[in-house]
Amino acid sequence: MPDRLSALDASFLSQEDATTPRHVGGVAVFERAGRFDYEQLLCLIGQRLGYLPRYRQRVLAVPGHLARPVWVDDVDFDLTYHVRRSALPSPGSDEQLFDLVARLMARPMDHDRPLWEAYFVEGLAGDRVALITKTHQAVVDGSGTVELGQLILDTEPQLCEPYEDIWTPRRLPSATQLVLDALGETTQRPAELVENARAALGDVVAAADRLAGSVGGVASKVRSLLRPTPAGPLNAPLSGGRVFAVVRSELDDFRRIRAVHGGTVNDIVLAAVTGALREWLVSRGVAVTGASTVRAMVPMAVLEPGTARFSTAGLVNNEIEAHVVDLPVGEPNPVLRLQHLSHAMRAHTDPGRSVAARAMLKVGGFAPATMHSLAVRAAGTDPGRLVNLVITNSPGPQEWLYAGQARMTEMYPVLPLTRNQALAIGVTSYHGNVYFGLNGDRKAVWDVGNLATMVEDSLEELKGAHR
């Protein structure tokens, strides 16, 4: 049987264009140590690709679009094409790194090759290096395939020794075989014709509805609201450019705020973003009243009904539910904003199915990279009309992690933008810090750096607030 793309994955591919590339990214910063260089990174990734067969496969279309495309081995696979070397003018600044991130994330990937890329960036000040990764939404399903960052990071320094690559690609199916397989499946399942047509047209919502509960072990459930989506500058046609900014904060600050005002760390993340969006909208000249809101999609990990516990084996038996939350940007009091959000999030959470952060931290490697990818899959069912932006938050390990012999010191998620949504925010905690990655459209959210500063100010406001 052919390894056919799901209707959801086919939709992610077909709806992609020059202004809306559908890959999830990550930026990891490392302290260079020992022999960790580009060759060591190639060795490390090449040695472990056997655990991720999808990373050596590409998408092959079926003649006449009689069926969804299939995954096939890339007979011309070249690791050095996917793992690339780059450098900043030494000593490179963080601002230069994040400008490079924005430029790389704006570029769609070649659909005739495996849908992932990694960039080894040298020249950072302080003898640091960075790893920028891009993985298409169609690749990471959380069941058979995880994100590259989860695979290459270890809890102890490693030195990659020379290895023998014994991988042999399978022969490509002929056009005749692809057509015969498609006709055979259509005969057995006549509804496949409708599903294929929807996928070919990029009807991601219809595809997701049909596959909810069975897409690669991850169900994406979008809870539509009857109220209209708040209008504002966050919903705008996208250009081909991107801007990227970050926020570094301490996890202890979130814990102190929680101890005084209650809620969860995720509630405080949302409150900090809400306060920042309030100030940003005012700076843009938008009239903000007491009733003003910004609608966010907030994907969260939950257990399938009847599942005893969160699974750490490939993240199976778990769901990512995409909840729609109105952020109260019209509320001037930071404590009341937090309380409002805590109440709203409790309304979305089933205590019997919610996944505690401590359970997610048991997943091997740097699981947030995979969890952000899965969250984006869930959020990807929104056609750009239901919400103003997407916010994901995934807790990470609190011990040091290493790529080869280099210790990772920072990690920022980079979420893709969907049509008419000009901002996406990913948040990850790691080794006592909380890292925000703000990805924006270069024309619509050109001042994303100001917004990042406002997130910092909003956190300070919460820290200084009293009951």
UniProtKB/TrEMBL annotation:
Biological processes per GO annotation: biological process involved in interaction with host; glycerol metabolic process; response to hypoxia; response to nitric oxide; triglyceride biosynthetic process
Molecular function in Gene Ontology: diacylglycerol O-acyltransferase activity
Pfam families attached to this UniProt entry: WS_DGAT_C (PF06974), WS_DGAT_cat (PF03007)
Lipid metabolism as UniProt keyword: yes
Documented EC number(s): 2.3.1.20
Keyword Transferase annotated: yes
Reaction equations catalysed: an acyl-CoA + a 1,2-diacyl-sn-glycerol = a triacyl-sn-glycerol + CoA
Alphabetic keyword roster: Acyltransferase, Glycerol metabolism, Lipid biosynthesis, Lipid metabolism, Transferase
InterPro entries per the UniProt record, alphabetical: Acyl_transf_WS/DGAT, O-acyltransferase_WSD1-like, O-acyltransferase_WSD1_C, O-acyltransferase_WSD1_N
PANTHER family in UniProt: O-ACYLTRANSFERASE (WSD1-LIKE) FAMILY PROTEIN, WAX ESTER SYNTHASE_DIACYLGLYCEROL ACYLTRANSFERASE 4-RELATED
Lineage: Bacteria, Bacillati, Actinomycetota, Actinomycetes, Pseudonocardiales
Pathway the protein takes part in: Lipid metabolism; Glycerolipid metabolism; triacylglycerol biosynthesis
Gene Ontology CC, one term: plasma membrane
Span of domain O-acyltransferase WSD1-like N-terminal: 5-269
Protein name: Diacylglycerol O-acyltransferase
